[in-house]
What we know:
The protein is mostly beta strands. Helix content is 0%, strand content 42%. It has no helices and eleven strands. The protein has strands spanning 25-26, 30-36, 44-47, 50-51, 61-67, 74-76, 81-84, 95-104, 114-124, 133-141, 149-157. It has a four-stranded mixed β-sheet, with no helix packed on it. The chain has a three-stranded antiparallel β-sheet with strand order 3-7-6, with no helix packed on it. β6 and β7 (81-84) form a beta hairpin. It is rod-shaped. The structure holds calcium ion (2 copies).
Amino acid sequence: MGRPSLSSTLTVYFNVVDLNDNAPLFDPMSYSNEIFENVTVGTSVVAVSATDLDSGDNGRIVYSIASGDESGDFDIAANGSIFTRHPLDRETRSLYSLVVVATDRADPPEARLSSTVQVSKQQQVLGRQQPCCATLTPICTTGDSSPWRNSYHKKYELPE
Ligand SMILES: [Ca+2]
Ligand SMILES: [Ca+2]
């Protein structure tokens, strides 16, 4: 008859709270492409993408255009897709260099973290890249070993 052992157990649970210790990261780090000047308003011209390793709102990303679009020609959707808001005119502006910011949605007192990416767009003029038709006109020359030697003019007709 020994003394009964006196013991009990207690289970302790911890919730590990996420700290906002990761900034959004863009991949790739820059974007460059060409767009045609007559794209329809609302056309998506490029999509940027950033990731944030934190959880919940600490890892939720909101995109915005920080600079480079003073005339408001572009807007950016929640998914990072940049689209046109106005008709673009290459004669008015041929190159855009946008700075896009990705910011997480951490709640105070956690500080929100952000990063930026450069997006360059060169405008292309439509209608002048390719001749619409080419005609070959044979012309005769003399004085060579061969009595007839054909050479060709190429005549390009550009659309009005
Ligand atoms: Ca974060
Ligand atoms: Ca974290």
